[in-house]
Amino acid sequence: MIVQEQVCLKDKHSFHLNVSARYWAEYQKTEELREILQDKRFDKLPVLPVGGGCNILFTQDFPGLIIKSAISGIDVLHENKDEVLLRAGSGLDWDQFVEYCVSQAWGGIENLSGIPGLTGASPIQNIGAYGVEAKDVIHSVEVFDRQTQELKVLPVEECGLAYRNSRFKQEWKDRFIVCYISYRLNKKPFYRLDYGNLKEALSSQGGLQEGPDAHSYNLALIRRTVLAIRSSKLPDPDVLGNAGSFFKNPELEASAFALLAERFPELPHWKLPNNKVKLSAAWMIEHCGWKGKSLGRAGVYPKQALVLVNLGAAQGEEIYDLYQQIAADVFSTFGIRLQAEVVIL
Asked: What is the pLDDT of residues 167-212, one digit of tens each?
């Protein structure tokens, strides 16, 4: 374990902004994490746990200690003919983890292919794509408790996983640090293909196979298809700095949506449980004329209105100002306040 001082963060987060941290440390074991947090140098400083830095907007230098998990390893805790229970370190690259699971014909996260970041973010952010969310497959989360300095296993039911949210982002933000995650994956065919154009894209490639030995092929096909769709819509952060979807899709009560739909009948929406409706933030942003537009050195990606990009040497304040202006225009037009999916510091 090495602690560094005055570290440039440009290559340590996906917006690639020229900001720095007073201290930076990486840990490969929970014992090293405990040692870092007990170090008297950091007693009165803010501490920020990060993963791949793919969901953060820095608007200024960070004045404290940033700690990053490098805990690796994938262990099979239980397995039978129907499913497998895995324990993965929080420092694993998420897409490499998905690739490994697909290669083993373990299903459930193939729709989440191509999401940047580390496995540790999956319960914190409740990552999701193409009709699947992390809460669908997470069994439990092993955390380091900063109050007791001990490890604790939390059943997923206690973690409050919701749309791009969890208790780890709310009341547990300064208490628990995710160290390991257990996932329950399928060994029998069960696929989620009813979101967006995934089913159509699969059909264009011949569709899924049937039969007792088709599961492995189908998982690999779904993964390749999702990766192709993502690459056609989303920019490579190493080419154009971004944090993926910057905005959450807002949710309304069905009665409020009915009133809105009278004014905007073409507004894309999805019915949710509990008499709620999810709306397309991308459509509203595009309707307000922001898709492909820029403000200084910050811009809206031409192929996906949810994505804000660093057009080159942008400062965090410029991206934040763009976010604020888009949100203000959407509120003025639709009466809906867009919320950031990205953590703004």
From this structure: 998 899 889 999 999 999 999 988 888 876 888 888 887 788 888 7
Determine the Cα–Cα distance for residues 115 and 245; give it in Å rounded to an integer: 11
* Domain harbouring 296, CATH code: 3.90.78.10
Beta strand ranges found along the chain (DSSP E): 3-8, 20-27, 47-50, 56-57, 62-69, 74-79, 83-89, 128-129, 132-133, 138-145, 150-155, 176-186, 241-245, 251-253, 269-272, 276-279, 294-295, 298-300, 307-310, 343-344
DSSP 3-state percent helix, strand, coil across the chain (nearest 5): 30, 30, 40
Q: The domain containing residue 333 runs over which residues?
A: 241-344
CATH code assigned at 39: 3.30.43.10
**Burial, 183: exposed, middle or buried (Cβ in 10 Å; 0-12, 13-18, 19+)?**
buried
Residue pair 136/121 in contact by the 8 Å Cβ criterion: no
Q: Which two tokens stand for residue 342?
A: 């990205």
How many domains are there within the chain? 3
Domain end point (choices 69, 85, 116): 69
CB-count burial class (<10 Å; 0-12, 13-18, 19+) for 44: exposed
Q: Examine the fold and report which residue of 45, 69, 93 is the final residue of a domain before the chain moves on.
A: 69
Min mean pLDDT across 3-17, 113-127, 197-211, 253-267 is at 197-211
* Residues 254, 277 contacting (CB under 8 angstroms): yes
Catalytic residues: 164, 245, 341
55 and 151 fall within a common domain: no
pLDDT tens digits, 29-78: 999 999 999 999 898 899 999 988 888 999 999 999 999 999 999 999 99
Name 277's bridge partners: 252, 271
* C-alpha dihedral (198, 202, 207, 212), degrees to nearest 10: -70
Question: Are the C-beta atoms of 67 and 26 separated by less than 8 Å?
Answer: yes
Handedness of CA 272, 274, 277, 278 (dihedral sign): negative
